[in-house]
Write a structure and sequence with these properties.
There is one protein chain. With 1007 residues, this protein is of the alpha/beta class. The protein has 22 helices and 43 strands. The relative contact order is 0.07.
Length: 1007
């Protein structure tokens, strides 16, 4: 566990950053601390020549960092310290005579450090600064902590964050330790790296060294990855796999990992320290007929059939794995060996999923390890996708193997260890995603992580004992800097990051990279960016998912998921993005010139390009609606869409060539607009990025906009709030959504538009209802005129009244009905209006605990507000009506049956039962239990359409039916199982209209 010294220091640093202190955190005043640089002279850095390679290497980085900050480069000496001048001694306990002599003399106290894992110590001894640690990474982390304190961001290279220049550097003399990390192996997976990283890296660092495979990543690339990992206190890497083979792409790759002191691994589909591409490059699989007979021979380097099949080509597979372990022993690098086996191409095994087969595979791998190296080497079995089925069926690996549970690829952990069973000695881990390729759709373009969601899931994982190995899929890494750093910070010390310090962490991130003056403003932008982005992946902004009465799910990849006509939903969410982009632009203008590249890379591009994409989609889908209605304004919206598309390309071009001297040329090439375009790139288009022959295609606008031919003369058109139809032409009379004095939805409107090219004048008349106000009541219509309808409730009669509103122009008239409901009932709490009551889950009227268990608000965890979830997260399940409950006082004006819709986070069934459950009741009625897993039908194992729907929409929608009379009631939501997150509750009394986020929250009256 991290030491209390570390925790206090960490909180002090965060407090300084959050308070906007002008004093750099972690530095001392001149004359009071150790003089790292003083009066133009730097301390000499001394290291033992026999120390660990990572330690000998990192002193060069420290010298370079001091020079970046001060312009003065310290000298580096080996074995012998100079007789005069300040000295920094860097060394590993047990490997550095320089440090060990101080310990032996009683001058350096290493109690609490020696024998620990990756634990650092910084202390001034006899006027010399000693940077030591329990092992080489403990030393390395301590050295890089000095770099961070003097003003060098971990992202100085990958995000071009400039150092904080200053002439003097004085470090505190107090004994300091970063503590021992909570998660032993902490790292990430570079994955899905085409086209962005796969285009940029070989061009920047040079091609791979494997003959015929120039797109491989060489050791110069990985050196930059390794350095950044260690600066972030990570220690473990799964290297890139899309057409790449770490060991073959450069013979120096493993040696470089050893030089830096990094632990290497391979992904869940690549056992025994061999990337799957090492097989694919040299094997041609045999082709078999339906009876299993080979009709076209295959081959591989081991005399086999070339098939990635343990049943049919087992000897060759085992020989291939043996070579991987022999290489590990020969090159003597540190690693965690992946066990198990999956099908070639991130799929299930071709040999079936029998538990005996997997048991045989793991046994064979263990035999190879015992023979060629040792079974003491760390090993991991990752329960990704279908592999979790073996665990569910009772297969257990040997006790020393780390078992890694995973999320569902969308940030929802799939399963926790069963706390009722004895602990697994090898421990448990977590594989988590900030990037994904697969159904329902890839998300690869920009960071879409919500820190509140990440925190809640990591907190759950930690609470259930997953603390041995954590790895995050970060795609290209660049673009996911913030969630990656948060993931690693939490893995290091979860106790220092309770949920109420998330905003402090964001300010700290902003302060470290941009300085304290702008930290609060930048942190606010990053926070709101994550909140807005988490509602839906940007790649999914052209997919609407609907479910009919029979539960059949339909995808429409040429429609916005947000409503164009109800609650002004698409307009409102787009305007939120435009407001955020405007705030970002104002901050950008204040960012010092030296930080502008970093600001564009870490903040500006993602915010501005995402806001622009929302503006593009609003113009595009409004164009398609208006073209169907025959509106003259449709053509102008087509031009707006094309202009926003040009802006998208220009923003990417600025990233590629306009910042950092063109350093990132070719990086911002990830398509994100043309998903679903089957006609252009085939049947995988609904989920796969635009590509042909595995090469990404540049985006085009999809669906395409429409331009319409207009008659020369004027022609009246009318559309109303809540309908996609247009009159004259549509059946029946248009009806506006119901008016209520308690409505919170945007004001109802009537659109009067021209279906021709000649302007006309329109007018509106309201017969016998002067309390109905239409603004404006008429005017010149060139393309369209929006009229807002409001009610003077002081004059409106009680009860329900239908008022005709006549719109006339261009020789035609359309009558629009306004249904005005003015209830004569006392109201308390949330009040029904428009046929529904909508309530954010956190806005309960009472939160009633049951013993030590209570619902707790996690800010911003929901799509439109906080999420409520039971704490502690390991609380045992309760019978319906016996657990903690949330109460919501509300007033209904419509008697009869109602439907209560619960908007829930799309959590998997992490517990051991058949599904996560909650319960709902009104007043004193018996609670109705809902099994969320069964109700939605979502299956994260088969990744069925129900699962795709819940993860794509980022919500589980479940419902219950209740008989409730008009009047004031108390709606109760009961905990049955932990891990349920309630975002929002909507009581539908018959008027709920379809929308993505649900209706705006209802008006709330005291009482």
């Amino acid at each position: 566990m991290p030491s209390e010294v570390h925790r206090r220091a960490f909180l002090q640093l965060l407090a300084l950053a959050g308070a906007g202190s002008a004093v750099l955190p972690g530095l001392a005043e001149a004359g009071t601390g150790f003089p790292l640089v003083s009066r133009g002279k730097a301390a000499t850095i001394v290291v033992s020549s026999g120390d660990r390679p990572g330690v000998r290497r990192v002193v060069g980085d420290l010298a370079a960092d001091v020079e970046r900050v001060t312009g003065v480069r310290p000298a580096v000496a080996f074995d012998v310290a100079p007789a005069e001048g300040p000295v920094v001694l860097v060394g590993t306990l047990g490997h550095s005579p320089l440090v060990d002599s101080l310990v032996a003399a009683g001058r350096l106290d290493v109690r609490g450090i020696a024998g620990k894992w990756e634990t650092s110590l910084s202390q001034v001894v006899d006027g010399r600064l000693v940077l030591t640690g329990s092992d080489q990474r403990g030393v390395i982390y301590g050295v890089y902590e000095v770099s961070r304190r003097i003003g060098v961001s971990p992202w100085y290279w990958w995000a071009d964050v400039p150092p904080r220049r200053q002439a003097e550097l004085h470090l505190p003399q107090e004994r300091f330790s970063l503590g021992t990390p909570r998660v032993k192996y902490r790292g990430f997976f570079i994955n899905d790296e085409n086209p962005a990283l796969g285009t940029w890296a070989p061009a920047y660092f040079g091609p791979g060294k494997a003959p015929g495979f120039p797109n491989g990543f060489n050791h110069l690339f990985f050196a930059k990855i390794f350095e950044t990992m260690l600066r972030l206190r990570a220690n473990y890497l799964w290297p890139a796999v899309w057409g790449r083979a770490f060991a073959e792409d450069d013979p120096l790759n493993h040696a470089t990992a050893k030089e830096y002191g990094v632990v290497m691994g391979t992904s869940h589909e690549a056992p025994m320290m061999r990337g799957i591409e090492e097989w694919n490059r040299h094997a041609v699989p045999a082709v078999r007929d339906s009876s299993g007979t080979i009709v076209t021979p295959g081959h591989d380097p081991y005399g086999g059939t070339g098939e990635w099949s343990f049943r049919r080509n087992g000897d060759a597979i085992k020989a291939y794995w043996t070579d991987g372990i022999r290489r590990m022993a020969r090159e003597d690098f540190e690693g965690v060996v992946t066990l198990g086996m999956r099908g070639n191409g991130d799929v299930s095994l071709p040999d079936g999923d029998g538990i005996e087969l997997m048991r045989e595979i793991i046994a064979a791998e263990r035999d190879i390890l015992a023979r060629e190296l040792s079974t003491d080497v760390p090993q991991v079995w990752t329960l990704y996708k279908e592999v979790q089925r073996y665990w569910a069926q009772g297969l257990r690996p040997p006790d020393d193997v780390i078992v890694v549970f995973t999320d569902d690829n969308w940030g929802n952990v799939r399963k926790h260890p069963d706390l009722s069973l004895p602990p697994h000695l090898g421990g448990y881990g977590l594989y988590y995603h900030f990037d994904y390729v697969g159904g329902g759709r890839n998300y690869k373009w920009v960071d879409t992580a919500l820190l509140a969601n990440t925190w809640e899931q990591l907190h759950q994982a930690m609470s259930y004992g997953n603390d041995r190995l954590w790895v995050a899929n970060v795609g290209d890494m660049k673009g996911n800097e913030l969630p990656l750093q948060f993931f690693l910070d939490y893995a290091w010390d979860p106790a220092s990051l309770p949920v109420d310090r998330l905003s402090t962490w964001e300010r700290s991130f902003a302060s470290e990279n941009f300085g304290s003056a702008l930290a609060s403003d930048i942190a606010s932008v990053l926070h709101d960016y994550g909140r807005l982005q988490s509602r839906r992946k940007p790649e999914l902004l052209n997919r609407r998912i609907t479910v009919d009465g029979a539960g059949v799910i339909t995808y429409d990849d040429q429609m916005t998921p947000f409503s164009l006509v109800d609650y002004r939903e698409l307009d409102r969410v787009t305007e939120e993005w435009q407001d955020l982009a405007a705030r970002t632009a104002r901050i950008s203008a204040r960012v010092p010139a030296a930080h502008r590249d970093a600001f564009y890379e870490l903040v500006g591009y993602a915010v501005t390009a995402s806001a622009n994409l929302y503006a593009l989609r609003r113009a595009e889908f409004t164009n398609l609606l208006y073209a169907a209605q025959g509106r003259a304004s449709a053509n102008g919206l087509a031009a707006v869409t094309e202009a926003r598309f040009a802006d998208d390309l220009a923003l990417a071009e600025k990233y590629n060539t306009g910042i950092a001297g063109g350093k990132w040329k070719g990086f911002q090439t990830q398509p994100h607009i043309d998903y679903g375009d089957v006609a252009r790139y085939g049947p995988n288009a609904p989920w796969q990025q635009p590509e042909l022959n595995n090469v990404a295609l540049p985006d085009v606008i999809f669906p395409a906009v429409r331009r319409i031919e207009l008659p020369a003369g004027p022609s009246l058109g009318v559309a109303v709030d809540g309908s996609a139809e247009a009159w004259p032409g549509a059946a029946g009379r248009p009806v506006l959504p119901e008016f209520s004095p308690y409505q919170s939805a945007p004001a109802q409107y009537i659109d009067v538009f021209n279906r021709g090219r000649t302007p006309f004048r329109c007018q509106v008349s309201v017969a016998g209802a002067p309390w109905v106000r239409v603004e404006p009541r008429g005017g010149r219509v060139e393309e369209e005129l929006r009229m807002t309808v409001r009610i003077d409730w002081s004059r409106a009669p009680r009860g329900t009244t239908t008022v005709p509103i006549t719109v006339s122009g261009a020789g035609q008239s359309v009558v629009v009905d306004a249904v005005v409901r003015h209830p004569d009932v006392p109201v308390r709490g949330f009040v029904e209006a428009g046929g529904y009551v909508s309530m954010e889950a956190a806005h309960c009227s009472a939160n009633v605990p049951a013993g030590p268990v209570a619902w707790r608000a996690i800010p911003d965890l929901g799509r439109t507000g906080a999420g409520m979830t039971p704490f502690p997260v390991t609380a045992p399940s309760r019978a319906a009506g016996a657990g903690p409950r949330l109460e919501y006082r509300l007033t209904l004006v419509t008697p009869g049956p109602v439907t209560v819709w619960a908007y829930l986070s799309p959590r998997s069934n992490v517990l051991q039962g058949d599904g996560l459950r909650y319960a709902v009741s009104f007043d004193d009625a018996a609670p109705q239990v809902v099994n969320i897993t069964k109700a939605t039908g979502a299956d994260d194992m088969t990744m069925n359409r129900q699962w795709e729907r819940t993860t794509s929409d980022n919500v589980n929608l479940t419902s219950t039916r209740h008989e409730v009379g008009a009047g004031t009631h108390v709606l109760k939501v009961w905990m049955v199982d932990p891990a349920v997150v309630v975002q929002k509750l909507v009581v539908d009394t018959g008027g709920l209209r379809p929308s993505y986020l649900g209706p705006p929250e209802s008006m709330r009256w005291p009482g």
